[in-house]
């Protein structure tokens, strides 16, 4: 685990990793040690064993729907394709060849613009790259991921108010700020590096204004798991 954390890397969660190609356990500014729980979660998930084949015979679809996100996450890694046949209450493991044949048959029955390619924000950067490449080779640019759905509202709001829907600053810029507004975010859980910067601002006499309908514990106590 330590070797995985301290080696040069590209994090599955943020694409930078704890130090990225500079080496692990440092932040973007080179400070050591910096520890990101999102990186650890991604690595721990990869270290899990695969889901056993009898799992799919044991748990029906209604039972799986009652699993919490935590329970589902700790069932193991999905190491083989599964199929849900119409009318069945159980997923059925199938071979990769069978899965590819089924996907190819569906794609052959459509024009490229009738397809939509979506990849999860919890998948790796490599998987996302390969999926969009396959989509473009098939003749479409109908490619999307969760960031569009998660950030579309903020992107539209920012563009209408400041002229751009993307970030205009870097994390390092915040170290020179006297006042920072955090609107609708939970950096203690989702952006530990940002949480560290906010803590530094407070320690140096700056102000952090939080606007959020949800009371986030990390932003009340100004503590970070990272």
Structure write-up:
This protein is mainly alpha-helical and 226 residues long. Among the domains are: 2-47, no CATH class; 110-163, no CATH class; 169-221, 3-Layer(aba) Sandwich (Dimethylsulfoxide Reductase, domain 2). The protein contains 12 helices and 6 strands. The model has no long low-confidence stretch (mean pLDDT 84).
List keywords for this structure.
globular, Dimethylsulfoxide Reductase, domain 2, two-stranded parallel sheet, 226 residues, two-stranded antiparallel ribbon, mainly alpha, 12 helices, 6 strands, 9% strand, single chain
The ordered string of helix (H) and strand (E) elements is HHHHHEEHEHEHHEHHEH
Quaternary structure annotation: single chain
Strand content: 5-15%
Largest sheet: 2 strands, antiparallel
Summarize the helices and strands and which ones pair or pack.
Blueprint (H helix, E strand, L loop, with lengths): L1 H5 L30 H11 L5 H6 L2 H5 L3 H5 L8 E2 L8 E2 L2 H13 L8 E3 L5 H14 L4 E3 H17 L8 H4 L4 E5 L3 H4 L1 H12 L3 E5 L5 H5 L5
Parallel strand pairs: 3-4, 5-6
Antiparallel strand pairs: 1-2
């Amino acid at each position: 685990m330590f070797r995985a954390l301290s080696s040069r890397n590209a994090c599955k969660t943020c694409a930078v990793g704890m130090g990225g190609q500079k080496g692990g356990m440092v932040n973007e500014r080179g400070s050591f040690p910096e520890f990101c729980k999102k990186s650890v979660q991604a690595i721990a998930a990869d270290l899990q064993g695969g889901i056993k084949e009898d799992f799919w015979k044991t748990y029906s679809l209604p039972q799986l729907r009652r699993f919490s996100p935590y329970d589902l996450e700790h069932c193991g890694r999905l190491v083989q394709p599964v199929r849900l046949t119409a009318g069945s209450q159980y997923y059925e493991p199938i071979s990769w060849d069978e899965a590819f044949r089924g996907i190819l048959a569906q794609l052959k029955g459509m024009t490229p613009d009738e397809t939509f390619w979506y990849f999860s924000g919890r998948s790796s950067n490599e998987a996302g790259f390969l999926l969009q490449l396959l989509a473009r080779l098939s003749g479409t640019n109908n490619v999307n991921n969760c960031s569009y759905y998660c950030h579309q509202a903020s992107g539209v709001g920012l563009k209408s108010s400041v002229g751009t829907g993307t970030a205009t600053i870097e994390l390092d810029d915040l170290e020179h700020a006297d006042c920072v507004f955090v609107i609708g975010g939970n950096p203690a859980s989702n952006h530990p590096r940002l949480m560290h910067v906010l803590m530094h601002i407070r320690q140096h006499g700056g102000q952090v204004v939080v606007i959020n309908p949800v009371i986030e514990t990390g932003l009340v106590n100004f503590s970070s798991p990272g």
